[in-house]
Amino acid sequence: MQRDALPAGQRVSAGRRGRERPRELKFAARVGRYEKLTGKTQQAIVGDNKRMVLRRSVVRSRRPKRTGDFSQRAPRWAGTSARTEVRGSLTSVSEDCASRHGLLFTCIGRRVQLLQAFRDAAGSLGIQLEIHGTDASVLSPGIHLVDKPHLVPPIAAENYIDALLDIVVRHGIELLIPLLDFELPLIAAAAERFNDAGCRALISTESVVKTCRDKLATFKTLQSAGIDMPQTWLWSEVAQGEHHQFPYYLKPRHGSAAKGNYVIHNGEELRALGRRVPDALIQEFVSGAEHTLDVYCGFDGRPRCVVPRKRLEIRTGEVSKSLIVKDADLMAVGRRVAEVLGGCRGVVTVQCMVTPEGRIRVIEINPRFGGGVPLAIHAGADFPRWILMELLGRKPRINPTGFRDDIVMLRFDHAVFVPNASKLARAKRLTNRAPRSGKR
Q1: pLDDT per residue over 10-36, tens digit each?
Q2: Structural domain that includes position 75
Q3: What is the pLDDT of residues 64-119, one digit of tens each?
Q4: Strand ranges (DSSP E) for 217-261?
Q5: CATH number, domain containing residue 398
Q6: 34 near 48, Cβ under 8 Å?
Q7: Among the four 71, 325, 405, 410, which has the fewest Cβ within 10 Å?
Q8: Are 9 and 42 within one domain?
Q9: How many CB atoms lie within 10 A of CB 78?
Q10: Angle formed by the axes of helices 112-125 and 383-391, to 10°?
């Protein structure tokens, strides 16, 4: 077969005995379909980067191969003209690759269920989603289960935001979702920088994040709006007082994951634990059932759906057993909190106590996905699907009471097994290896 006799879109590769044949024929022979491409059956070979469609089977190539100078490739966030200029030196890119959307989870840690929920949502919408994840530790479980893992400096490092921006630019990330409390102020402050790079940071406004991260500011903001919260004081103010109404609840002013939280029963504990906990606050102790309210505010900040979850059991600050409670009063409190804050984006978690008398008292707010949010998603509040739809410019139809009631979530351990761990721990960069996973 002569080269100039080939149809457009076919390549030629040398055969073992000096013959030349189309690359598609060579590939098909390896999978036992040679006769189907030699004219014995109907065939359809579409160009280099497309799927080869046969009458009785579909042979999928591996990753579409592109040629050209990729060092000059324009990222997806660049304008159309920039992409067109670079594309002139490349072969045509398949339609599937062009429609791939990049999502970045920062500080992914153990949030495997959440990233899987986004994969499921992308599948239901018929879009290709490439999930990236960052962490400072190579031993983070989630970083081994994303499509593209990235090691980054610790949050306290001066170049933390620059490292995230570099990932966004190099990989054409369109949506960034932060997952750890301590990075929220940094990302909120840099939201415009991410936006300039073509990436939406799904985070509340900087003022909202600042209020929520400061538990004393949270108390003052909500109390002034008439929302019920336990009385809150600086530890130094209470420690100097002579008359006390124990028990109290002590917590760090800028704490997270219940670290440094204590129930105070007497003056000795008040003095000792207050000195141990940095920037400690004292709250009025509230007995009752703790609930988490998952409040979906989308991209425009308007609360659209509130899913109350009763916390049945907590392990290391994160819920391990939880129950959906479709209560109108709880849902109203969640909406009211989001409206008072005014700049919430994505999913915000509101923690509250329901006293034996039925009084609902808000205790704190975390402007991010909560650890128990997979329960709300399973119940029908499909936050990942709604977020991806908004990212694509579509309007999700949200029924605020469309989720199912009385569903319990019982979490258990799941393990990721990573081979060659000693070499991996010394690595400065990660590769996309396929770890083994299993249940324990």
Answers
A1: 444 444 444 444 444 444 444 344 344
A2: 66-91
A3: 333 333 233 333 333 333 332 323 222 233 343 347 899 999 999 999 999 999 99
A4: 232-234, 248-252
A5: 3.30.470.20
A6: no
A7: 71
A8: yes
A9: 17
A10: 60
Pair (74, 86) in one structural domain: yes
CA–CA gap between residue 264 and residue 5 (Å, rounded): 86
Q: What is the DSSP string of 49-81?
A: TS-EEESS-EE--SSPP--S-GGGPPPTTS-HH
Number of folded domains that form the chain: 5
Is 212:235 a contact under the CB 8 Å cutoff? no
Decide if pLDDT at 60 tops 60.
Answer: no
What are the backbone angles phi and psi of residue 248, rounded to the nearest 5°? -115, 170
Other C-beta atoms lying within 10 Å of the C-beta of residue 398? 15
Q: Tell me the C-alpha distance between 282 and 373, whole Å.
A: 28
Query: CA 354, CA 366: separation in Å to the nearest integer?
Result: 18
Query: In terms of domains, do 166 and 177 share one?
Result: yes
pTM of the model: 0.76
| CATH code assigned at 151 | 3.40.50.20
Mark whether 240 and 334 lie in a shared domain: no
- Note whether residue 220 is domain-resident: no
Q: Using CA atoms of 323, 324, 325, 327 in order, give the dihedral in degrees to the nearest 10.
A: 160
